[in-house]
Design brief:
Elements lengths: L7 E6 L7 H15 L3 E6 L28 H10 L2 E7 L7 H8 L17 E6 L9 H14 L3 E7 L12 H11 L4
Parallel strand pairs: 1-2, 1-3, 3-4, 4-5
Helix pairs in contact: 1-5
Length: 189
């Protein structure tokens, strides 16, 4: 009997705070995924030196590398290609992703469908926290996440959006949110 290959989960941590609420939410997800036998890696995106996409479209050329900009994305692209599941973890910053995570996402344009280095059909999940108390504050992020997933042809595994967590560590007062992140990890096949 052939042993099934472990699912490779890559979590992109977008919080500028090393121990921020979205990071802790992501760790709950990661722990649950690991307990189910999945291999989990995470990247602290704000710690990377990633330049914004400059729209040069060199990535559209058939012989091109994924992106001609030489920065820390050079080491991220192989990790993205090795992933079976992508998880975006972010605090809500002005109704969308954090700036470091947005910059990384913009650089995924070179991996869009119909490109030689495509990332199609990778299930994705969104974990997000916000200081704002209203769930409606996530409307812009949810729309952006869905648009990116649709464009990249990524099936959406699910999301956990947690309002009302402003101070570092506030997520600890939201055990139901942590349990939802764990339950989302259990949906990985």
């Amino acid at each position: 009997m052939t042993k099934k290959k472990a699912t490779q989960v890559l979590i992109l941590l977008g919080s500028p705070r090393e121990d921020g609420n979205s990071t802790r939410l992501a760790y709950a997800f990661a722990d649950a995924a690991s307990l189910r036998g999945h291999v989990v890696q995470s990247i602290r995106v704000p710690a990377l030196d990633i330049a914004p996409c400059d729209g040069c479209v060199e990535c559209w050329k058939p012989a091109s590398v994924p992106c001609v900009i030489r920065d820390d994305m050079v080491s991220v692209y192989p990790m993205l290609r090795a992933a079976d599941v992508l998880v975006f973890a972010t605090p809500l910053h002005f109704f969308t992703w954090s700036a470091p995570l947005k910059t990384l996402i913009d650089r995924l344009f070179c991996l869009a469908p119909k490109r030689r280095h495509s990332l199609q059909n990778i299930p994705v999940a969104l974990l997000a926290t916000a200081a704002d108390d209203t769930p409606a504050a996530f409307a812009g992020l949810k729309a952006t996440f869905r648009l990116v997933a649709d464009y990249m042809e990524w099936p959406i595994l699910g999301s956990v959006l947690v309002p009302g967590v402003a101070k570092e560590g506030d997520i600890a007062r939201k055990p139901r949110a942590m349990a939802k992140a764990e339950a989302l990890a259990e949906r990985i096949r």
